[in-house]
Predict the 3D structure of the following.
Amino acid sequence: MPKPDSLQGSLDLLVLKILSRRPRSHGYAIMTAIQNMSGEVLRAEEGSLYPALHRMEEAGWIRAEWITKDTGRRARLYELTAAGKKQLAAEESRWQAVTSAVNRVLRMA
Amino acid sequence: MSLWSRIANVLRGDGLSGEIDEELQSHIAEAIEQGRDPSEAKRAFGSVLRQLDESRDVRIIPWLDALRADAIFGWRQLRKSKVTSAAAILSLALAIGSCTSAFRLIDALLLRPLPVAEPQQLYALSRQGIDFDGKLATFDGWAYPAFQQMRAAIKDQAELIAISYAERMDLTYRSDQETEKAYLQYVSGGMFSSFGLRPALGRLLTENDDLKPGGHPYAVISNDYWKRRFGQDPKVIGRPFRMGDRLYEIVGVAPEPFTGTETGTVIDIFVPTMMHPGAVHDDWTWHRTLARLKRGVAVEPVRAKLHSTSRAFEQERAKGFKGMTKESIDKFLDQTLLLEPAVAGASGLQYDYRRSLLALGVLVALVLLIACANVANLLTAQAAARAREMALRVSIGAGRWRLVQLVLVESSWLGFLAAAMGGLFAWWSAPFVVSRVNPPDNPARLFLPTDWRVIGFGVLLTLAVTLLFGMAPALRASAVKPASALKGGEDPHSRRRLMHVLIAAQVAFCFLVLFVAGLFAATFDRLSHRPTGFSAERLLTVDTAVAHPESPVFWDQVAEHLRTVPGVEKVALAKWPLLGGGAWNGFVSVNSAPPAPVLAYFLAVSPGWVDAMKIPFINGRDFRPSDTYPGVAIVNEAFAKQFFNGESPIGKSCAKGGDPFQIVGVVRDAPYRSMREPILPVAYVPFHVIDEKGALRPVGDATFIVRTTSSKPLALASVLRREIPRARPEFRVSNIRPQADLVRAQTIRERLLAMLALFFATVALLLAGIGLYGVLDYSVLQRRREIGIRMAIGASAGEIVRRVTADVFGMVLFGAVVGLAFGMASVRYIEPLLYQVKATDLVMLVIPSFTILAAALLASLPAVIRAVRIDPATTLRAE
C-alpha cells in the first residue's frame, strides 16, 4: 500500500478532480471520496489534506463557505473557482503526460 | 483573499485559529457520524496543535507575522534602555517638531494658495529701481490713476485688481464715543467676481460699486469678522457704520475661507477703492495691484505693456515736479516693472519674513540632521553590543533582510514616537511663533490649518528621518559575520569610522547653527542698544482724530487742557510719533540753489515737543506759539551735515518746493521712522501750517506726546481717553501706545530671530555634545583591551588620553573647518537680516569655535577619565 507521502504532488489534482465532480463538499467528504474511489488504495491524511485545502484557497483555485447543518454544527464546504477549473485541466494533462511517459519507460525497459 | 483580509488575519490571529479549529472539530464529528471510532478519529489528526500551526502558516503572510514579532521585540528593546531611548526620542521629537513647525509657517505665509479660483493666475505688480538713498529697492505701492491707465491698457490679457494696504481703522456702529478698530481694505469692485467668490450672505461688491469717487458707501465684511463681531447675526445686512465723516452700509458677507489677499492679516471689512480719498490723486501710492492673467496669456508681453504704460504715466507726472533736479527725475523714472506670482497673496509680512523663515527652516533642518546623526550613532553602538545576538540569529537561519527589518522596525518605533511628540510640539510652537511676530496691539494672524499638506509633510519627514538614521545601522547589523562575532573579535574600526564621519558632520552643522545664531544675536544686540537720541521713558503717544479736520488752535486747546490733568508732566503735539511709521519727505534747496539730490524728512511738531521728547538742543531756540510753516524749522545734526557741510545752519534759509523756511534751531539726531536705517536729515516744522490762502490748515489727526510722572505711563491711558473728549467733544483717542513700545517694535523680528536661533543653537550644541560623549565612551569601551595592554606595557596616562581622543578631535576640527566654510558661503543669503554685523568679524568666528571646542572637551571628559582609570589587570583577566 502506498504511503501517504507518495501522494505528494498529486493530492492537489485529486482534490480538484473530486470537487469538480462533487462541488460543495467538506473536508471529510473529500477524504473519504479519495479513499473510496481509489478502491482503498489512496488515503489522504488529515495532516496534509487541510493545509492543502487552505493553500489552494489562498491560491484562489477553490473557495470555501460556512454552512450550518441540521445538527446545528457548522461545516466548511469547498467548491472550484474558475481558476481552479483551469488548474485542474493543467494538472490533469501534466499527469497524463507524466504517466504515459513513465509507462513508455516501463514498456521499453 | 484580499490584502486587507490578510492583514486582518494577522491582527486577529486568535479568531482565525478558532475558525480552523472549528473546521477540524466538524471533520472529527463527521467521521464519528460515519461510524468511525471516536478516539481513532481524533488520533488521525495527530496533534491538533500542529495542525493549527501548519494551516495558519499557509493562510497568513509570514512576513506580516514576523513584522508583528519584530515590533514587539523592538518595543522591548526600547524599554530595556529607557534613558537612551528617551533621549533619542526627545531629541528627534524636538527636531521633527521644529521642522514641521517651520514648514507650517513657511507654508501658511509663502506657499499656501489663496482660497480663490485659479490662484496660480495671480501676479503682483511692483517696481524696482534705485531709491533716493542710492540703494536698489522694490516698491509695490501704486497710485490709482496709474492703475486705471494700466488696467485699460491690458484689459484683453488680464484683469487688474487694486487692493489697498490693510489699515486698522477707527469706526463706530453707534456714537463717536464707542469707536472700535477693524482691519479695513479698499478693493476693486470687480475683485470678488474675478476671484470666483460667492457671498455667504447678502451680496458682494461689483464693478458697479466702484465707478464714482466717494459715491459707493458699501461694505462687505469677512466671515471671520461676522462671527467674531456679530455672532453670525443675519440682520447684519443693512447695518450702517461710520468711519471718518462717512456713513457706510454693510451689504454682504464674504465666503468663509477668504480673508483678503494680504497674507498675515485677516481683513474685517472690504470697501470699494473709489471710497479712498487717494482715488483721484496721481501722487498718492496707497494700494497694491494684482494682475489676474487670462489663461494661456504669456507673462512677459503683459509685463512689458504694463511697464511702458506705467513709465508713460510717470513721465507725464514728472513734468509737474517742482524743486527736483533733472538727474533726480531721471533716476526716479528709471524703474523696472516686475510681475511676480502671487499664488499665496501679497503682504508686507511675506516680504519681511521670507528670508527669516527660510533661514530658520535651514537651522532647524540642521538640528534635525544633528539629531539623526546622534540616533544613528546610538543605534550603531547598540548594534555593536548586540553583535552576538545578531550572529546567533544568522546562524539559526535568519536572512540578511530579516535582520535589516528587525533593526529598521526598532528605528521605526523611535521615529514613530518622536513624530507623535514632534507633532504635538509643532501644534503648539507654530502659533507661538506667529504670536511673537507683530507688536501685541497689532498681532499677525496666519491660518495654520492641520491638513493633508502639513500631515503629509510630517509623515514624509518621519519616513525620511527614520531611513536616514536607521538604514546604516541596519545594514551594518545585518552584515554581521557569525563566526567572528561569536568569537568576539569583529573588526571594531569599521564601526568607528562611520561614527567618526557622523561626528564630523554633526560638528560642521553645529558650527553653522552657532555661527548664524551668533550673527542674529549680535544684530539684535546692536539694534536694541542703538541710542535713540530721545528718552522714551514715561512717554505716551496718544493718536487722536476728529471726524472733520479742526484748526490747530483747537488742538492746542486740548493740549493745554491735558497739561492740567494730574500725573501729566509735559504735553506736546506732533503729526505722528517718531518710529511710528509715518513719513513726509521732499527735496530741499539751500539759499535758492537748485535742490540737492538727497531727500530730507519733515515732521510737524508743536512748541515744547523737543523738550517733551528730551532731545538735546545743540544750538538755537525752540518754536514759539506764533511760528508757522512755511516760515521756520528746527533741523537735526544729520540735516546740518548733509546740507551745510557741518557749518552752523542757524539763520540760513532753505526751501522745500515752494515753501521757504529759516532754520532757528539744531537738535541732536534721533531716528525718524526706523532703527535699522542711518539717521535721516530731518527738519521739524511748526504744527501750525498755513495754506496757499494764508489760513491755518485744519488738522484731522495728530498725536499728543505726553510725558507722565508715573513710571507706568499706561496707567494714565484711561484718564487721557476720558479727558480729551472733555476738552473738545469732537476729539477722540484712536490709539495710546507707550513710546517705549514703538522703540521695541523696531526690533521684533530681530528679537524673534535671535531668540529662536539661540534656542536651536543650544539644542544643536547639546545634541552634538551628547553625540560626542556617546562615541568617545563607546570607543573607550571597545578599546579597553587595547588600552589595558598599552598600560600594562608602560604607556603613560597622557599617551592613553591622546590615543583615545586624537581621532575624534581630528574629526571635530575637520567638522569645524567645514562648518566655517558653509558659514562663509551662507552669509550672502542672510546678509539682509543683519545689522552692523560682519560675518568676517573675528569675534563672530571665534565665539562658535570656542564654544564647540569647550563643549567637545566637556563631552570627552567622562570617556577620558574612564580610559585613564582602566585597570590593566582586571581588563585582561576578563578577556
